[in-house]
Write a structure and sequence with these properties.
Number of helices: 14
Distance between the termini: 39 Å
Radius of gyration: 21 Å
Strand order of the largest sheet: 3-4-5-8-9-10-11-12
CATH architecture of one domain: Alpha-Beta Barrel
Order of helices and strands: HHEEEHEHEEEHEHEHEHHHEHHEHH
CATH class of one domain: Alpha Beta
CATH superfamily of one domain: NADP-dependent oxidoreductase domain
């Protein structure tokens, strides 16, 4: 008997084959006309007119991180992945000028050339600010959020993507030497010129966002952070007492602090969408130095996957989706069939009890 998961995977493979025999733009148009394109629940990003799927696709997985020129095989692979992502309801595509030395944006631009109707059906966001040292990949990364660098980086991204605007620009990391007025000047120019519609940040905590907000005129609409069952930190900030009682601890136990910057609560209060990068790292393949709590968490994920007839990846993603902050996981699969399985997370409902079981296990 074919399970729903197997059916979805077979559909993805068939979709890839169809993409090889027709222009991707034609395939997308056919899906829209026939009404066959699956739907993922969507969120409207506060302070914008953008509506995005609650699962995004991270374009850093489109091709290898090397300095070889983009070739026909790269374009074929990227076309498959973009097509499968879109066909399964994903409308948010996440980039960074750093990814594959800019090749991820370049190959995505080639996909857009082949399907000119696609650009206006999706939301493209990119990030800037991280800069490889002279040695390239593996060398230390520096951060530059000067006005000159931000503007130059965006113009480079637009050229590689072959589009006239980014829907969202994220600052990729906090610059220890940042001058908020410089960032404000860059944002003002990019917004006025129509090159960037909305702005956000990545890897920022509450005080860092607040500092930026004092200078920029445009609202900060997204904060993309590392968040997963293997890295639950942002969800455990200030939650020490709740975690203690969730694990069966007594209120008479040693003093429980309330440390943490409350990043997720700040984002919820101020209408900033939380996006999760690497939402599956460390969960599907245990690292060699995995902690006892991570091992227990992975075991519980596997049990829930069997119970719900789905994959561990879908359970780990559903855990993030269950949170009322409206967290948007950014998927990073480079295999179409895995991408389809990940999208199944949108249809999985975790009970409050199941969510708290995972929460208590991962935050031991």
């Amino acid at each position: 008997m074919t399970t729903r998961r197997q059916f979805l995977t077979q559909t993805a493979i068939a979709s890839c084959a169809a993409a090889e025999s027709m222009n991707v733009g034609q395939a997308v148009a056919n899906d829209v006309r026939s009404g066959s394109r699956p739907s993922i629940d969507a969120y409207r990003i506060a302070h914008t007119d953008l509506v995005v799927s609650r699962l995004g696709y991270g374009a850093g997985s489109l091709l290898s991180w090397d300095k070889e020129p983009v070739n026909a095989d790269d374009i074929t692979k990227a076309t498959r992945l973009v097509h499968v992502a879109y066909d399964n309801g994903i409308t948010l595509f996440d980039h960074a000028d750093l990814y594959a030395y800019g090749k991820s944006e370049e190959v995505f631009g080639e996909v857009l050339k082949q399907s000119p109707g696609l650009r206006n059906k999706i939301v493209i966001q990119s990030k800037c600010g991280q800069v490889f040292s002279e040695g390239g990949l593996g060398s230390p990364i520096r951060v530059d959020l000067s006005r000159k660098h931000i503007v130059s980086a965006v113009e480079g991204s637009l050229k590689r993507l072959g589009t006239d605007r980014l829907d969202i620009l994220l600052l990729h990391a906090v610059d220890a030497l940042v001058e908020p007025q410089e960032v404000a000047a860059a944002f003002e120019y990019l917004h006025r010129s129509g090159k960037v519609r909305y702005f956000g940040v990545s890897n920022y905590n509450t005080p860092q966002i607040a500092l930026l907000e004092k200078s920029v005129r445009q609202p900060i609409v997204v904060n993309q952070i590392q968040l997963s069952l293997a890295n639950p930190g942002p969800l455990t900030e200030g939650m020490q007492f709740t975690l203690r009682i969730a694990k069966g601890g007594r209120m008479s136990d040693e003093s429980i602090g309330l440390a943490g910057s409350g990043t997720i609560d700040y984002c919820r209060t101020n209408g900033i969408q939380v996006q999760a990068w690497s939402p599956l790292r460390g969960v599907l393949k245990l690292p060699a130095d995995a902690s006892p709590q991570l091992k227990a968490t992975v075991q519980l994920v596997a049990e829930l996957a069997r119970k719900k007839n789905t994959t561990p990846a879908a359970i780990a993603l559903a855990w993030l989706l269950r949170h009322p902050a409206g967290i948007v996981p950014i998927l990073g699969s480079d295999k179409p069939e895995h991408l389809v399985e990940d999208c199944a997370a949108d249809r999985i409902n975790l009970s409050r009890e199941e969510w708290y079981d995972l929460f208590a296990a991962t935050a031991a």
